Amino acid sequence: MSSHIEFSFPIEFHNKHYETFVETLPGYPGPLPIKPETGANTRYIGVGEDEAVKIFYFFVESEGNPEDDPLIIWLAGGPGCTNLHAFFFEIGPFKTKKGIFIDGVPALQMDPNSWTKLKLANIVYLDAPTLTGYSYTTTDESYSSDALSASQTAEFVRKFEHSVFSGLDVEE
């Protein structure tokens, strides 16, 4: 059985009603000039039977026109790689300052080449499959197959879009 997800745009944001805005990060001097959002501090998005699999994510809104810019679900290579690597070293809003530390952690600065800064897209950095990065499970669902991982990712996208967006058509 195969499934796919199709998105229709434009999207409309629900009054910026997100789970938790990240306001500071170790290594960044002061409040962040952007507000990445995560479900991690209040709850993860649960998927699977009894929502036993808890999916961790960061959402960063495009600095262009978020209602019209596409939504990208970014999955890291793996197995088991957290998307924090992409967030800090690839396409994310920050980069480290080599050799500079603040309170013992690498200093961060805004990355002018970030995909959100370049106004290319809204991005969800998703720690999937189960047991990748900060995602976890409360049952034996942790042993994932490709089909189960795809199903859980599709369920995450449906639940995420209902909590953040309206007007985004998701078809299975």
Automatic annotation (TrEMBL):
Name this protein carries in UniProt: Peptidase S10, serine carboxypeptidase, Alpha/Beta hydrolase fold protein
MF terms in GO: acyltransferase activity, transferring groups other than amino-acyl groups; serine-type carboxypeptidase activity
InterPro entries listed in its UniProt record: AB_hydrolase_fold (IPR029058), Peptidase_S10 (IPR001563)
Organism per entry: Artemisia annua
Lineage: Eukaryota, Viridiplantae, Streptophyta, Embryophyta, Tracheophyta
Superkingdom per UniProt: Eukaryota
Entry's family note: Belongs to the peptidase S10 family.
SUPFAM superfamilies for the chain: alpha/beta-Hydrolases
GO biological process: proteolysis; secondary metabolic process
This protein's record includes keyword Protease: yes
Keywords of this entry: Carboxypeptidase, Hydrolase, Protease
Keyword Protease assigned: yes
